[in-house]
Design goal:
- By secondary structure, this protein is of the alpha/beta class.
- Helix content is about 30%, strand content about 25%.
- The N and C termini lie close together (about 5 Å).
Length: about 260
Protein backbone atom coordinates (compact mmCIF):
# COMPACT_ATOMS: atom_id res chain seq x y z
CA UNK A 1 0.00 0.00 0.00
CA UNK A 2 1.37 3.39 -0.99
CA UNK A 3 0.14 6.51 0.71
CA UNK A 4 0.76 10.20 0.17
CA UNK A 5 -0.32 13.54 1.57
CA UNK A 6 -3.94 14.53 1.03
CA UNK A 7 -3.35 17.34 -1.47
CA UNK A 8 -6.36 19.16 -2.97
CA UNK A 9 -7.10 17.89 -6.47
CA UNK A 10 -5.29 14.56 -6.04
CA UNK A 11 -7.24 11.28 -5.88
CA UNK A 12 -8.43 10.07 -2.49
CA UNK A 13 -7.94 6.48 -3.70
CA UNK A 14 -6.24 5.23 -6.85
CA UNK A 15 -5.85 1.70 -8.24
CA UNK A 16 -3.10 1.13 -10.80
CA UNK A 17 -3.10 -2.05 -12.92
CA UNK A 18 -4.88 -3.83 -10.06
CA UNK A 19 -5.35 -7.59 -10.25
CA UNK A 20 -7.19 -9.66 -7.64
CA UNK A 21 -7.45 -13.41 -7.20
CA UNK A 22 -8.62 -16.03 -4.74
CA UNK A 23 -5.91 -18.67 -4.80
CA UNK A 24 -5.35 -19.53 -8.45
CA UNK A 25 -8.74 -18.18 -9.50
CA UNK A 26 -8.55 -14.67 -11.03
CA UNK A 27 -11.23 -12.20 -9.89
CA UNK A 28 -10.24 -8.88 -11.47
CA UNK A 29 -7.51 -7.91 -13.88
CA UNK A 30 -5.85 -4.67 -15.00
CA UNK A 31 -8.16 -2.26 -13.19
CA UNK A 32 -7.20 1.42 -13.21
CA UNK A 33 -9.40 3.68 -11.12
CA UNK A 34 -9.36 7.08 -9.41
CA UNK A 35 -11.81 8.42 -6.84
CA UNK A 36 -11.89 12.20 -6.40
CA UNK A 37 -13.32 14.17 -3.50
CA UNK A 38 -16.99 15.08 -3.89
CA UNK A 39 -17.95 12.64 -6.64
CA UNK A 40 -20.44 9.78 -6.48
CA UNK A 41 -19.24 6.65 -8.29
CA UNK A 42 -21.31 3.51 -8.69
CA UNK A 43 -19.89 0.05 -9.41
CA UNK A 44 -22.25 -2.29 -11.25
CA UNK A 45 -21.84 -5.75 -12.73
CA UNK A 46 -23.34 -9.25 -12.67
CA UNK A 47 -22.95 -11.62 -9.74
CA UNK A 48 -19.38 -12.80 -9.42
CA UNK A 49 -18.01 -9.88 -11.41
CA UNK A 50 -15.60 -8.75 -8.69
CA UNK A 51 -17.52 -5.70 -7.38
CA UNK A 52 -17.28 -6.39 -3.66
CA UNK A 53 -13.77 -7.79 -3.98
CA UNK A 54 -12.68 -4.55 -5.64
CA UNK A 55 -14.13 -2.46 -2.82
CA UNK A 56 -12.57 -4.69 -0.17
CA UNK A 57 -9.19 -4.30 -1.86
CA UNK A 58 -9.57 -0.51 -1.93
CA UNK A 59 -10.12 -0.37 1.83
CA UNK A 60 -7.31 -2.82 2.55
CA UNK A 61 -9.39 -5.85 3.54
CA UNK A 62 -7.88 -8.13 0.88
CA UNK A 63 -4.43 -7.92 -0.78
CA UNK A 64 -3.73 -7.20 -4.42
CA UNK A 65 -2.33 -10.05 -6.50
CA UNK A 66 -0.70 -7.46 -8.77
CA UNK A 67 -0.69 -3.71 -9.14
CA UNK A 68 -0.91 -1.00 -6.53
CA UNK A 69 -3.48 0.88 -4.51
CA UNK A 70 -2.64 4.42 -3.44
CA UNK A 71 -4.59 6.07 -0.64
CA UNK A 72 -4.21 9.58 0.66
CA UNK A 73 -2.48 9.81 4.01
CA UNK A 74 -4.93 10.15 6.88
CA UNK A 75 -7.83 9.08 4.68
CA UNK A 76 -11.03 8.47 6.68
CA UNK A 77 -13.33 5.79 5.29
CA UNK A 78 -16.94 5.15 6.29
CA UNK A 79 -18.39 1.76 5.33
CA UNK A 80 -22.03 0.65 5.10
CA UNK A 81 -22.46 -3.12 4.59
CA UNK A 82 -25.27 -5.04 2.92
CA UNK A 83 -26.86 -5.93 6.23
CA UNK A 84 -26.20 -6.46 9.92
CA UNK A 85 -27.19 -9.68 11.62
CA UNK A 86 -28.62 -8.93 15.07
CA UNK A 87 -29.35 -11.50 17.74
CA UNK A 88 -33.08 -10.96 18.48
CA UNK A 89 -32.59 -11.25 22.25
CA UNK A 90 -29.74 -8.72 22.35
CA UNK A 91 -30.80 -5.53 24.20
CA UNK A 92 -29.00 -2.87 22.18
CA UNK A 93 -30.33 0.59 21.51
CA UNK A 94 -29.29 2.72 18.57
CA UNK A 95 -27.43 5.09 20.88
CA UNK A 96 -25.47 2.24 22.46
CA UNK A 97 -24.69 0.84 19.02
CA UNK A 98 -23.23 4.17 17.94
CA UNK A 99 -20.95 4.05 20.98
CA UNK A 100 -19.28 0.82 19.79
CA UNK A 101 -16.39 0.24 20.00
CA UNK A 102 -15.61 3.64 21.55
CA UNK A 103 -17.93 6.08 23.25
CA UNK A 104 -18.78 9.11 21.14
CA UNK A 105 -20.08 12.49 22.15
CA UNK A 106 -23.89 12.41 22.36
CA UNK A 107 -24.24 15.58 20.31
CA UNK A 108 -22.08 14.15 17.55
CA UNK A 109 -24.10 10.92 17.59
CA UNK A 110 -27.34 12.90 17.33
CA UNK A 111 -25.93 14.93 14.44
CA UNK A 112 -25.05 11.72 12.61
CA UNK A 113 -28.59 10.39 13.10
CA UNK A 114 -30.01 13.67 11.81
CA UNK A 115 -27.74 13.54 8.75
CA UNK A 116 -28.88 9.97 8.08
CA UNK A 117 -32.55 10.95 8.35
CA UNK A 118 -33.36 9.04 11.55
CA UNK A 119 -33.10 11.72 14.24
CA UNK A 120 -35.81 10.14 16.42
CA UNK A 121 -34.43 6.58 16.64
CA UNK A 122 -31.71 7.00 19.28
CA UNK A 123 -33.63 5.19 22.04
CA UNK A 124 -35.08 2.45 19.85
CA UNK A 125 -33.85 -1.12 20.06
CA UNK A 126 -31.95 -2.23 16.96
CA UNK A 127 -34.05 -5.37 16.71
CA UNK A 128 -37.21 -3.24 16.42
CA UNK A 129 -36.04 -1.31 13.35
CA UNK A 130 -37.30 -1.88 9.84
CA UNK A 131 -34.80 -2.73 7.12
CA UNK A 132 -34.72 0.84 5.86
CA UNK A 133 -34.31 2.28 9.36
CA UNK A 134 -31.46 -0.10 10.15
CA UNK A 135 -29.60 0.84 6.97
CA UNK A 136 -29.89 4.51 7.89
CA UNK A 137 -28.53 3.77 11.36
CA UNK A 138 -25.59 1.99 9.71
CA UNK A 139 -25.16 5.08 7.56
CA UNK A 140 -25.13 7.26 10.69
CA UNK A 141 -22.46 5.00 12.19
CA UNK A 142 -20.37 5.31 9.04
CA UNK A 143 -20.44 9.12 9.00
CA UNK A 144 -19.70 9.69 12.69
CA UNK A 145 -16.07 10.58 11.95
CA UNK A 146 -16.94 12.69 8.90
CA UNK A 147 -15.28 10.38 6.35
CA UNK A 148 -13.46 11.51 3.24
CA UNK A 149 -14.85 8.47 1.43
CA UNK A 150 -18.21 6.81 2.11
CA UNK A 151 -18.46 3.25 0.75
CA UNK A 152 -21.74 1.39 0.42
CA UNK A 153 -21.61 -2.30 -0.48
CA UNK A 154 -25.09 -3.29 -1.72
CA UNK A 155 -26.46 -1.22 1.16
CA UNK A 156 -30.06 -1.24 -0.11
CA UNK A 157 -30.40 -4.99 -0.56
CA UNK A 158 -33.82 -6.06 0.69
CA UNK A 159 -35.39 -2.58 0.44
CA UNK A 160 -38.26 -1.90 -1.95
CA UNK A 161 -37.82 0.61 -4.77
CA UNK A 162 -39.27 3.65 -2.93
CA UNK A 163 -37.11 2.84 0.10
CA UNK A 164 -34.06 2.43 -2.14
CA UNK A 165 -34.66 5.75 -3.89
CA UNK A 166 -35.14 7.52 -0.55
CA UNK A 167 -31.93 6.01 0.79
CA UNK A 168 -29.90 7.22 -2.19
CA UNK A 169 -31.40 10.70 -1.89
CA UNK A 170 -30.14 10.67 1.71
CA UNK A 171 -26.69 9.68 0.45
CA UNK A 172 -26.71 12.68 -1.89
CA UNK A 173 -27.52 14.97 1.04
CA UNK A 174 -24.69 13.44 3.09
CA UNK A 175 -22.31 13.98 0.20
CA UNK A 176 -23.29 17.62 -0.05
CA UNK A 177 -22.97 18.18 3.69
CA UNK A 178 -19.63 16.40 4.20
CA UNK A 179 -18.05 17.08 0.83
CA UNK A 180 -16.97 13.43 0.76
CA UNK A 181 -16.61 11.05 -2.14
CA UNK A 182 -19.16 8.23 -2.34
CA UNK A 183 -18.39 4.81 -3.79
CA UNK A 184 -21.37 2.48 -4.14
CA UNK A 185 -21.70 -1.16 -5.16
CA UNK A 186 -25.23 -1.83 -6.28
CA UNK A 187 -27.59 -4.03 -8.26
CA UNK A 188 -30.27 -1.29 -8.37
CA UNK A 189 -29.17 -0.29 -11.84
CA UNK A 190 -31.42 2.53 -12.97
CA UNK A 191 -32.06 3.94 -9.49
CA UNK A 192 -28.49 4.12 -8.27
CA UNK A 193 -27.05 5.10 -11.65
CA UNK A 194 -29.33 8.09 -11.77
CA UNK A 195 -27.79 9.27 -8.49
CA UNK A 196 -24.23 8.89 -9.78
CA UNK A 197 -21.70 11.16 -11.42
CA UNK A 198 -19.78 8.22 -12.85
CA UNK A 199 -20.43 4.50 -13.31
CA UNK A 200 -17.91 1.66 -13.44
CA UNK A 201 -19.16 -1.58 -14.99
CA UNK A 202 -17.13 -4.64 -13.96
CA UNK A 203 -17.12 -8.22 -15.18
CA UNK A 204 -13.69 -9.51 -14.26
CA UNK A 205 -12.29 -6.31 -15.71
CA UNK A 206 -13.62 -2.84 -16.54
CA UNK A 207 -16.17 -3.38 -19.30
CA UNK A 208 -17.07 0.29 -19.61
CA UNK A 209 -17.09 3.46 -17.55
CA UNK A 210 -18.27 7.06 -17.75
CA UNK A 211 -21.40 9.06 -17.03
CA UNK A 212 -24.61 7.07 -16.44
CA UNK A 213 -25.86 7.94 -19.94
CA UNK A 214 -22.64 6.79 -21.59
CA UNK A 215 -22.52 3.51 -19.69
CA UNK A 216 -26.24 2.77 -20.19
CA UNK A 217 -25.78 3.06 -23.96
CA UNK A 218 -22.50 1.11 -24.12
CA UNK A 219 -22.72 -2.23 -25.99
CA UNK A 220 -20.83 -4.00 -23.18
CA UNK A 221 -23.33 -2.81 -20.57
CA UNK A 222 -26.34 -3.68 -22.69
CA UNK A 223 -24.93 -7.13 -23.37
CA UNK A 224 -24.76 -7.74 -19.61
CA UNK A 225 -28.04 -6.16 -18.51
CA UNK A 226 -30.23 -5.85 -21.61
CA UNK A 227 -31.45 -2.85 -23.58
CA UNK A 228 -34.38 -2.06 -21.25
CA UNK A 229 -32.14 -0.59 -18.57
CA UNK A 230 -31.38 2.47 -20.68
CA UNK A 231 -35.07 3.36 -20.88
CA UNK A 232 -35.49 2.82 -17.16
CA UNK A 233 -32.59 5.14 -16.49
CA UNK A 234 -34.08 7.87 -18.67
CA UNK A 235 -37.48 7.49 -16.99
CA UNK A 236 -36.00 7.75 -13.52
CA UNK A 237 -33.96 10.81 -14.43
CA UNK A 238 -37.12 12.46 -15.71
CA UNK A 239 -38.86 11.88 -12.38
CA UNK A 240 -35.95 12.83 -10.14
CA UNK A 241 -33.29 15.39 -10.85
CA UNK A 242 -30.65 17.02 -8.71
CA UNK A 243 -27.59 19.17 -9.17
CA UNK A 244 -24.03 18.62 -8.01
CA UNK A 245 -22.18 21.78 -7.05
CA UNK A 246 -18.41 21.79 -7.50
CA UNK A 247 -17.83 21.92 -3.75
CA UNK A 248 -20.49 19.42 -2.73
CA UNK A 249 -19.55 17.96 -1.55
CA UNK A 250 -14.36 -9.18 4.00
CA UNK A 251 -16.20 -8.43 5.42
CA UNK A 252 -14.18 -5.59 6.77
CA UNK A 253 -16.36 -4.52 9.68
CA UNK A 254 -19.62 -2.70 10.03
CA UNK A 255 -17.75 -0.32 12.34
CA UNK A 256 -15.06 0.45 9.80
CA UNK A 257 -14.83 4.16 9.41
CA UNK A 258 -11.13 3.99 10.03
CA UNK A 259 -8.12 6.22 9.45
CA UNK A 260 -5.50 4.79 7.13
CA UNK A 261 -2.31 6.32 8.44
CA UNK A 262 -0.19 3.18 8.55
CA UNK A 263 -0.84 -0.17 6.95
Amino acid sequence: MIQGAMIPGTPLIEAVDLCLSYGAAPVLRDVNFRLQRGEIVTIVGPNGSGKSSFVHALIGAIPAAKGQIHRAKGLRIGYVPQKLGIEPSLPLTVQRFLNLPHKVDKQRANQALIAAGVADLGRRQLRQLSGGQLQRVLLARAILLRPDVLILDEATQGLDQPGTAAFYRQIEQVRQELGCAVLMVSHDLHVVMSASDRVLCLNGHICCEGTPEIVASAPEYRALFGTGTQGALALYRHEHSHSHGPDCDHEHSFLSEHRTNDH
